[in-house]
Specification:
Blueprint: H1 2-16, E1 26-28, E2 56-58, E3 63-67, H2 75-78, E4 89-91, E5 95-96, H3 97-103, E6 128-134, E7 144-149, E8 152-153, E9 155-160, E10 163-166, E11 178-181, E12 194-201, E13 226-227, E14 231-236, E15 239-250, E16 256-267, E17 273-282, E18 288-298, E19 305-315, E20 331-339, E21 342-351, E22 356-362, E23 374-380, E24 383-385, E25 387-392, H4 403-415, E26 420-424, H5 430-439, E27 442-446, H6 461-478, E28 484-488, H7 509-525, E29 533-535, H8 563-568, E30 577-582, H9 591-597, H10 610-618, H11 629-639, H12 645-669, E31 675-680, H13 703-711, E32 715-719, E33 725-730, E34 736-747, E35 752-763, E36 767-768, E37 775-779, E38 782-788, E39 793-794, E40 796-801, E41 812-820, E42 826-835, E43 840-841, E44 853-855, E45 870-880, E46 883-892, E47 898-907, E48 918-919, E49 924-926, E50 931-939, E51 948-953, E52 976-979, E53 1001-1002, E54 1014-1033, E55 1041-1047, E56 1054-1060, E57 1067-1085, E58 1116-1124
Parallel strand pairs: 1-51, 22-38, 25-26, 25-31, 26-27, 27-28, 28-29, 30-31
Antiparallel strand pairs: 2-14, 3-4, 3-6, 5-13, 6-12, 7-11, 7-14, 8-13, 9-10, 9-12, 15-16, 16-19, 17-18, 17-20, 20-21, 22-23, 23-24, 32-33, 33-40, 34-35, 34-41, 36-39, 37-38, 41-42, 43-44, 45-46, 46-50, 47-49, 47-51, 48-50, 52-54, 53-58, 54-57, 54-58, 55-56, 55-57
Helix pairs in contact: 1-6, 4-5, 6-7, 12-13
Organism: Paenibacillus ferrarius
Signal peptide: 1-27
Keywords: Glycosidase, Hydrolase, Signal
């Protein structure tokens, strides 16, 4: 402990040293009919505001990079003007080494196919040089000049004009910022070139406190080495002003706010300097709110000496609110230090006036392992906010900045009705945070899981120094943003988590407590508890330091789960408490993206082994999520086997839509009383992925996107899978009255079997009653109430309870909900495909990554929907500045209901998709004869000069199997079985005919007894009239060749059907001519082939390749079902 105390003292000292013209849209539709219409154009202008800075010179252009294995000269020579850089690669900064090489065309696009796996990593095992030349204007001569590095990954030796100004012993840590005094080594005369050279060494991906991508994507081949954040030259007089910061509290009646304003001063001289600090606060219009000053003496050589202005009162403040709760105005604070009759330095910062507070309320879960009773409730300006979020990933794995992508992310978040993003340990782009501030999107950030950051119990003193400096650097930057709602000191574990399982040797709880206390001390030093929330971790694990949890959990699902689970399960997996990361797993992009990232030869089918399998899996996630097994098993059983990519993809879009809609509808329906937040895992991808996104890498929205958008409509009508109630949900601050709700039910043939209207409905604004009860607890430097309970949520109106059992329903049917306002304008329309055979979740086998199912809902009857003629009735374009709005009307001219109707906007006929694009609705239902008028918004520049083309299609028009028979009574369930072989007593034959598809029979995997063919037979107990079998396979253990045989005596067998499974389906639905027999046998041959190794291989996190997949050695059957007329 003596070492620890000495270290803490040195840490504080160390921290003090830190620092297009509109065209005519054409139409492509699912059937032959198309339409073209004329355009009317309107043009207006729109501008965006930007931040300002003084005496700051970004060094972003004219950089070159080269490997130190090639550029072998010394740093003193490389940092000399005129040094020859022929053969070097030009780049801008920020950029990683790999990003620069890809931009230069030296490395193939790593996002296509498996290119990333075959990049020569040996190139990055040596340091790389970054070099630039710059001039400074003569106006800066005589000033103090510093160079600021906001992020270097991982360590660096830095040279300027032939002299080393920093070494890699001190310049280490991905998330630290550095400000180096270069006054004596730089020339400012407007013409002399100064040369800056930085030699960067990459991190050890798992062992260093660095950028880590967990199981999200392949590891970048260079480990993201490079100058990955901005480099700035800053000039001043003797005293520098840095790190402006304003905290605010707001009166409960919102009539006044009370501000504390801070600025840090650094004295570059060896003598005390006395002067005046001036602070001017201006409101969003630029009008002065207050101007104040104080005289201070800045000690000789002082670093980051804090000056505070406390208790600044603002009457009638313009408060900053999250989206849907109010506006997002930004004030400015202008600090300057004046001495000897002149301004030494000045800094201006935007800020928002808002107060963040939390309490730990009681969730409905009675789980004690993990402990899930506490849920954190966030308040902004004393109003409760339901956190609806996505887990954010930088839009590029190589960390190349893209302001257009940032804009798209923020606009998509708003369009989907989300109000928050969570950043787990990336922090790469301040411009994104500015957009969040301006748009009222909340931001939650903290350290990443699963790498060295999650092992503070074994941090060395040097690692603790790096971690503390990293925290200080990040919080100093984040604390100026009103969007910043919470900092998480850990992701999957709090720093002082008591369980040492899986921790490195030498880990101790005492060390974890020391690190967590260090974090809390630093956060207190930075007034963080006066600004935003501090959460110990995103999990439900207890922090030993405080004896408390952070009020969040991650115990729902990361893989596919059916809609009902989110409503039903109030213990482990449903929409309760504050879920920090969860979601239905795979989220396939549209076919256009699949065709872009996968070789044409591997596009279809997927689950057949070989190169196809590995090409798809390379774009899955990693570890437990390295394949689409859970998702595809549900997909095949829900909708039937697919015979081509388009069919597979539309079924995937529908399954994704329904799951995403359900999770957010459940959260909204449970708001405040049962749930306080849900963070969908994830919002987006940094690499083209089949997992964890709401829109793809190329910014194309998919079914997941539109499911979330539907659920989060500001005023929304929904069907509750659990209670069977129809509800109106209001997420706005306004009340609505005189509403009319319509509830209708249609059978598969579009026959209406239920129709009821509900008039004069009212819905209150979003809100909640105050929490009652609880006990205050000291957590770090603040006191938080634990154990309170919100008893009533407002903004929820129950319309009706639908008794489906009383209706004469087809096996698949549709619930159509509509909500109209007092003027009869449609404000919400929502259609659900439902089935008599429901999804049944096997809660007793819930695991951290998913909850299995006993039974899948049967939507196969959707395949019988007749093709329809989708007509583009009209379209119109309006251009407003750089944006274009396309309004179009689509009509169903068919006699069948049109299911999952979707439109795509393309860049000319046969062109690529326009992206980003905000579409009003997609994957919706049109009744026979129904039409809808919708809009799509996009940038004119994204048309690339082409005319927009509207492509229309729907589920009906893509299906290839048109006449499936819905399942009724399974004649094989619970009957006696016999098999050719069994792997073990854990996989008996009876599992194939029990009540659950989760339990499986497995044939023997040995070469002798497991050889093909294998068989399983069922004794129906008596002769039955039968004409169909369904086999639900283990994902990788299906048969390629199948025979169905029947017998009267279990001796003489007649083959009634033969079938193949060429597409790797996990469900074989085989129909045959009706026979009356007692025994049924399935004979299986042809096991799934293996798949090759990709690159250097790898099976978990931190690899660029994939291990080979062995061929299947056995068959697995979760259910063998037999159907007929009795």
């Amino acid at each position: 402990m003596h070492v620890g105390k000495a270290f803490r003292k040195s840490l504080c000292f160390m921290l003090a040293l830190l620092f297009v013209a509109a065209g005519t849209p054409t139409a492509q539709v699912g059937t032959a009919k198309a339409a073209e219409v004329g355009i009317e154009a309107d043009v207006t202008a729109k501008s965006l505001s930007a931040s300002t800075a003084s005496n700051v010179f970004p060094l972003s252009q004219n950089w070159n990079i080269q490997s130190s294995a090639i550029a072998t000269a010394s740093g003193s020579k490389i940092s000399t003007s005129g040094f020859a850089t022929s053969g070097w690669f030009g780049t801008t900064v920020p950029n990683t080494v790999l990003g620069a090489l890809v931009n230069a065309g030296n490395i193939k696009d790593p996002y296509i196919g498996q290119n990333m796996a075959y990049i020569d990593e040996s190139r990055f095992t040596v340091p790389w040089w970054y070099r630039t030349e710059f001039t400074l204007p003569a106006s800066e001569a005589g000033k103090k000049i510093a160079v600021n590095f906001q992020g270097i990954n991982y360590k660096a030796d830095i040279w300027l004009n032939g002299k080393q100004i920093a070494n890699s012993t001190d310049t280490i840590g991905s998330f630290r910022s550095y400000e180096l005094d270069i006054t004596d080594n730089v020339t400012a005369d407007g013409s002399t070139k100064n040369t800056l050279a930085v030699q960067v060494t990459r991190p050890d991906y798992v062992k260093d406190l660095t950028i880590y991508w967990v199981d999200w994507v392949p590891r970048p081949a260079d480990n993201n080495m490079g100058i990955w954040r901005d480099v700035l030259i800053k000039t001043s007089d003797t005293v520098k002003t840095r790190n402006p910061f304003v905290t605010s509290t707001v009166d409960a009646n919102l009539a006044a706010a009370h501000l504390n304003a801070y600025v840090e001063l650094s004295n570059t001289s060896k003598a005390d300097v006395t002067g005046s600090v001036y602070a001017t606060i201006k409101d969003p219009s630029g009008a002065a709110v207050t101007s104040i000053s104080k005289t201070v003496t800045v000690k000789a050589s002082a670093k980051d000496q804090e000056v505070s202005f406390l208790g600044i009162n603002v009457a009638s403040p313009q408060l900053w609110w999250p989206i849907n709760m109010g506006d997002h105005p930004l004030y400015t604070v202008d600090f300057s230090f004046n001495a000897n009759g002149k301004v030494s330095d000045r800094v201006v910062q935007k800020f928002g006036i808002r107060e963040v507070s939390t309490e730990m309320n009681v969730s409905p879960s009675n789980s004690v392992d993990p402990p899930l009773k506490d849920m954190v409730q966030f308040y902004i300006n004393h109003k409760p906010v339901l956190i609806k979020a996505g887990g954010y990933s930088p839009t590029d794995l190589l960390l190349r900045r893209d302001q257009n992508a940032n804009n798209a992310v923020v606009q998509y978040v708003k369009d989907m009705g989300l109000n928050t993003i969570r950043d787990e340990g990336k922090f790469n782009d301040d411009q994104l945070l500015q957009l969040l501030d301006e748009n009222g999107i909340l931001f939650m950030a903290g350290w990443v899981c699963c790498d060295r950051w999650q092992q503070p119990a074994s941090f060395t003193d040097n690692e603790a120094k790096i971690a503390g400096a990293s925290l200080y650097s990040q919080l100093r930057e984040l604390r100026v943003h009103p969007s910043m709602i919470a900092w998480l000191n850990g992701s999957d574990n709090p720093p002082s988590y008591g369980n040492m399982d899986g921790q490195p040797p030498g880990s101790t709880v005492a060390r974890g407590k020391f690190i967590e206390q260090m974090y809390l001390d630093l956060e207190h030093q930075m007034h963080w508890e006066d600004f935003s929330a501090i959460i110990s971790s995103a999990s439900a694990k207890v922090a030993e330091l405080t004896g408390t949890v952070g009020g969040m959990h991650m115990d729902a699902t990361y893989d596919y789960a059916p809609p009902a689970m989110y409503f039903e399960d109030m213990k482990l997996g449903g929409a309760f408490g504050f879920t920090s990361e969860a979601g239905p797993g795979p989220s396939l992009p549209v076919t256009e993206t699949l065709k872009k990232i996968l070789p044409a030869s591997a596009l279809w089918p997927y689950n057949v082994g070989g190169d196809n399998y590995q090409q798809w899996n390379y774009h899955a996630s990693r570890e437990a999520f390295g394949k689409l097994d859970v998702f595809q098993k549900a997909l095949d059983s829900h909708y039937g086997s697919s015979t081509n990519l388009e069919e597979f993809n539309i079924k995937a879009q529908v399954q994704q839509y329904d799951a995403q809609r359900a999770q957010f509808e459940a959260v909204n329906a449970n708001k405040y009383t049962k749930a306080s937040g849900w963070i969908q895992w994830m919002l987006n991808n940094s690499f083209p992925s089949l997992y964890w996104n709401l829109f793809d890498f190329y910014l194309n929205p998919n079914g997941s996107y539109f499911g979330v958008k539907k659920a989060n409509e500001p005023v929304h009508i929904m069907f509750d899978y659990g209670s069977k109630e129809v509800k109106i949900l209001n997420s706005t601050k306004d009340a609505y009255s005189g509403l009319t709700a319509s509830v209708k039910v249609y059978n598969i043939d579009s026959t209406k079997v239920y129709d009821k209207a509900f008039n004069n409905l009212n819905v209150s604004p979003d809100g909640a009653s105050p929490a009652v009860g609880g006990t205050p607890k000291k957590v770090g430097y603040e006191t938080i109430n634990f154990g309170g309970k919100i008893k009533t949520a407002s903004g929820i109106t129950i319309v009706n309870k639908l008794n489906e059992d009383s209706l004469n329903l087809s096996p698949t049917y549709f619930i159509r909900l509509e909500l109209r306002d007092a003027s009869n304008q449609l404000i919400s329309v929502n259609t659900y495909a439902q089935t008599k055979k429901k999804d049944l979740v096997r809660y007793q086998n819930h695991d951290w990554n998913y909850t299995p199912q006993d039974q899948y809902a049967d939507f196969t009857e959707l395949q019988s929907l007749n093709p329809v003629d989708l007509q583009l009735v009209s379209s119109k374009i309006v251009t407003t500045g750089s944006q274009q709005t396309l309004t179009y009307t689509v009509k169903n001219n068919g006699s069948s209901l049109a299911f999952a109707v979707f439109a795509k906007i393309k860049k000319g006929t046969g062109g690529d998709l326009v992206a980003p694009v905000k579409m009003e609705d997609n994957y919706f239902v049109l009744l026979p004869g129904e039409q809808r008028t919708l809009t799509a918004e996009y940038a004119v520049s994204d048309l690339n000069g082409a005319a927009p083309v509207i492509s229309l299609n729907c589920y009906n028009n893509i299906m290839t199997k048109k006449n499936p028979t819905p399942t009724t009574l399974d004649l094989a369930k619970g009957k006696k079985t016999a098999v050719s072989s069994t792997e073990s007593s854990s996989f008996p034959a009876k599992n194939a005919v029990d009540d659950s598809v989760f339990t499986e029979w497995q044939s023997n995997s040995k070469d002798t007894s497991g050889n093909d063919p294998q068989w399983l037979s069922v004794d129906l107990g008596a002769s039955k009239t039968i004409n169909r079998t369904i086999t639900r396979w283990g994902f990788e253990n299906y048969a390629q060749e199948i025979k169905i045989q029947v017998s009267d005596d279990n001796k003489t067998w007649q083959t009634v059907a033969t079938a193949t499974n060429p597409y790797g389906s996990t469900m074989s639905d085989i129909a045959f001519n009706t026979v009356t027999k007692r025994y049924v046998k399935i004979v299986m041959s042809g096991k799934r082939p293996g798949a090759p190794q990709v690159g250097s291989g790898g099976s978990g996190q931190g690899f660029t390749g994939l291990n080979a997949v062995p061929a299947a050695k056995s068959f697995k059957i979760g259910a063998f079902e037999v159907y007929g007329s009795n």
